[in-house]
Amino acid sequence: ELRLLIDSLLFSKHIPYSQCKTLIKKLKGLSNVYFDKKVKHICNLPEHQPENKELFYTIDILDDAISQNKKVAFTYNSYGVDKKLHPKREAEYIVNPYQMVATNGRYYLICNYDKYDNLANYRVDRITNIRMLDETAKPISKLKEGELNLPKHMAEHLYMFSGESVRAKFKAKNYIIDQVIDWFGKDVEIVPENDEECTVSVTVNKESFFHWALQYGMHIEVLAPQDMKQKVMDAIKEIGAKY
Fold first, then answer.
1. Which is deepest, 80, 146, 195, 210, by most CB within 10 Å?
2. 215-233 pLDDT, tens per residue?
3. Residues 6+ apart with CB under 8 A from 197
């Protein structure tokens, strides 16, 4: 019950941050130290009811693994045309877990796949058959990121795609500056061009920016990188050909 109350506060868009933080501290004070350890790795909660019945068990195991600095193994799934989850591959995924977050109404695990030196994002509600391993997780300091800067990571990974980030530049209508800041945060560089347009520069995950550019295509013009501009142009032609 306490966790549900805390989750409601975390998802509130009306309570100021300082008041929200104070209320959460009071709610935690109604329980014991073990409860506090169980909630410290979750930064927010999803809006929608999960369909994966293992979700909360998965969260508990991930909490423990992150706290104990252990690797986890699991089956990663995707939906088929029968609307049921199916394993993406036969072999287990083995990862180094670092943090759980929620965005766009879904839980994500920020972790590292041993084979690579970068961070990856996995949907927690697509994870089944999870188990904590005895093997110690790879320190995040050994990755190319060096650390998990959560605000920066979330701002760059709008849709939580994994992969490289690039410096993107686009022309935008001034009336969508609110949306630009909502999506990318205040670290964006904005240069006014005239009363109607401005130029925006931002560091962002490449795949995420592609999808964002299509979403706001009527209000922006991609300027760089050149391969991204071409990719958006090709996608628009492909979409147009269908209509």
1. 210
2. 999 999 999 999 999 999 9
3. 171, 172, 173, 174
Please report, as a single letter, which amino acid is at residue 232: V
Rounded CA separation 232/221 (Å): 10
The residue assigned the tokens 């935690």 is 28
| HEC string for 126-139 | HEEEEEEEEEECCC
Pairing of strands 189-192, 106-113: unpaired
Q: Could you tell me the pTM of the whole model?
A: 0.66
What type of residue is 155? A
Assign 183 to helix, strand or coil: helix
Residue 205, classified by CB atoms within 10 Å of its CB into exposed (0-12), middle (13-18) or buried (19+), is buried
Predicted confidence (pLDDT) per residue in 63-115, tens digit: 999 999 999 999 999 888 787 889 999 999 999 999 998 776 577 899 999 88
CA distance 94 to 162: 16
